[in-house]
Structure formats: structure tokens, C-alpha cells
Amino acid sequence: MGNETLPNQFIFSEKMDAEALYNLYAGDYLYVEEIFATTLEHFDGDFGSIQLAYENGNTEELRKAVHKIKPTFGYVGLTALQDECKQFENACAGAQSIQEISKTYIPIKNALLEAKDLIQKEYDRLKAFNASQL
Amino acid sequence: MSFTCIIVEDLQVAADYLKRCCEKSGQLEVKGHFTGVADALAFLNTNVVDLIFLDVEMPGATGFDLLDQIAYSPKVILTTSKPEYAFDAFEYNVTDFLKKPFTYQRFLDALKKIPPAAPQVADNTVTESGLDHIFIKADGKLIRLNNDEILYIESMGDYVKFVTGEKKYITHNTIKNLEEKVSKQNFMKVHRSYIINIDKISNIRENGLFISGKEIPISKAHKQEVLKRLNII
């Protein structure tokens, strides 16, 4: 009985922090859909700034770009990725050259791309869920 | 209780979330959202708000740069994902510090810290009128402005802006009230929104005059009086 869900309850991917999402949106799934849509709309631009800064070897611009995108993940329930971004941002701040952070850049870049896929999938599911509730 | 506010935030999703919190609270009217300091400052130069939700790290300049340049002192709630800024926030005497993302309840707790006496801009203007100076109450203190420092005074609804060569001061008053209080030797009303310092006019055109590069309109009703006061040869 404890694991039963209400018919109008959306179950987020287990990769997402459902509790954090509930704390932010209190089960307002239409609004969560909006938030996910806005996140996806701006993701490529923000991610592009990260890639460009890295390709230019500019650690300060890279730090700023990661700083900007970081809270996004808090708004979509990817709290662990927000923390990873925070660590990478700190690494950028302390780096003298781009080489110092090149090893950690690849994993964070991949994590960001995976996150986008996940947000997209959850957005599609949310959209279908919300449509079914009308 | 109702406050006017602006949101200065470069992350769209964070700005949208904050805007929704403001609307949901029923206590805040959002006058604008700006993604950078320059645009926000341009808005704040001609508009008065009670509260600013301010991100710290933005392209070009920081939220603290904005606080250094603003001509008056609205309440400020910092919104950032970097708790390291808490010390600076304390130095700038901000009302609260919200770490993104924050819950709606945390947002409401921050609003509770705003004193009901807002707006926090000055509440009186001229407290003493002399021959060569006036005192205005701005930023919680009485500030002496010599008549020859003031370029012009501009209406901003229930507030006015005193513009000097160095700084701008926003205070709670009206042009109509000030017209009676400033020295008539130095100042005159040229438009329902402007009182100007006659000595500061650099040139006049058909429907406007220039002071320090700023064009100020002259209304039809005041034009004859303006021309009469000038030393035209």
C-alpha cells in the first residue's frame, strides 16, 4: 500500500530528485512542464558558452559559463549535477591553465549532455501526462 | 502590503521561477526583468522600485556593481547559487540572501524581513530652503545641495530626481510642491515634469532646452516665461 501512487501523480525518473521537485513545485505539474520547457529552450545556448570557453582555453569564462548553467539543474531535480558543476566551477577558479582541468572537463561535458537528454525525456512524459489530465 | 520590484537575473528559468513566486505572493508587482546590470541601471535611473531581486554574477558586471551605482537605496534580496557571496551581502546590508533554487516558503520568509515602511527611498525632500542651497532627505540622511550644483529636477511619479553634475538623488516629493520651495532666482518650472536651473541651460531649441547634454522639453504654457527669464540680446 505504501508504494501506491495516486492516479494524478506523476512519477519522475529515479535519476531526478523527486523530493526536491516536490518542494519547489508542490505537485504543480503544468508548471513543472513550463520550467522544463524553458530549461530546454536555453540549454544549447548556455552549453555552447561552456564549449566555446573551453575551446578558447579561457578558464575564467569557462567558470562563469558553468556558474550560469549550474542552478538550472536545481530547478529540474538534478541536484547532484548542480553539485558537480559547483566542484568544476571551483576547479576552474583555481586553475592556472585549461590543461589543469581538461581531465575533469570531459566527464562534466558528458554529464551535461546526458542531463539534457533526461530533461527532454521527462518533459515529453510530463507533457503527455498533463494532456491526459485535462 | 504591496511592493514594486524588479528582477535582475541572467538565467531565464530562475527569473521565471522568481516571477511566479512574486505573483503567487500577491505582495509584489514586478516592474521588469533584466538580464544584465546596464539595462537594470538604465531602468532604475528613471523608475523607483521598493525592492530588487538581484543575482550576483552576470555578464559584464556584478550585482554589487549595480548597488555601487544606484542613486537611491531600495531593499535588495540577493539570489545566487554561490553562498560565498554571503559576506559581501552582509557588507552591502542586503535584506536577505536566497540560494537558488529556493522554495516558495523560503521566498516568503525573505519577504517577511522587509519592513512595512518601504519604500526605503527618502520620505521627505526639502526641509530647509535657503538662498543658495536646499537640504534634501535621501538615503536616510539630510544632504545639502547648493543651488549651483543642481542641473535640474525631474518628476518620477510620486518621486523626484535631483540631478547634479556628479550624482542623482531620488526622493519622495512632487514637482508641484518643489516649485514653491526652491529658489525662484535660480530655478523655474519648464514642464509639468521638470524644474530646471536657469544658469545651467546651454542652448534652447523650438520645444526644448539642453542642460549638460540632456534635452528637457518646454511646454507651451511655460515657453514665454522661459524666454523672458533668459538674457537674450
Give me a quick take on this structure.
The complex is a heterodimer of chains A (134) and B (233). By secondary structure, chain A is mostly helical.
Which stretches of chain A are poorly predicted, pLDDT < 50 over at least 5 residues?
none
Poorly predicted regions of chain B are 118-124
CATH class of the largest domain in chain B: Alpha Beta
Topology as H/E string of chain B? EHEHEHEHEHEEEEEEHEEEEEH
Termini of chain B, distance in Å?
56 Å
Number of strands of chain B: 16
Largest interface: A-B, 21 and 16 residues
CATH superfamily of the largest domain in chain B: Response regulator
Largest sheet of chain A: none
How many structural domains in the coordinates of chain A? 1
The CATH architecture classification of chain A is Up-down Bundle
Helix- and strand-based class of chain A?
Answer: mainly alpha
Oligomer: heterodimer
Tell me what portion of residues of chain A adopts beta-strand conformation.
under 5%
Describe this structure in words.
The complex is a heterodimer of chains A (134) and B (233). Helices cover 75% and strands 0% of the residues of chain A. By secondary structure, chain A is an all-alpha fold. Chain A is elongated. Chain B has 233 residues and is an alpha/beta fold. In chain B, 26% of the residues lie in helices and 34% in strands. Chain B is built from seven helices and 16 strands. In chain B, helix 2 (37-44) packs parallel to helix 3 (63-69). The A-B interface holds A 23-24, 26, 31, 34-35, 38-39, 41-42, 64, 67-72, 74-75, 82, 86 and B 10-14, 16-17, 20, 57, 59, 81-82, 100-101, 103-104.
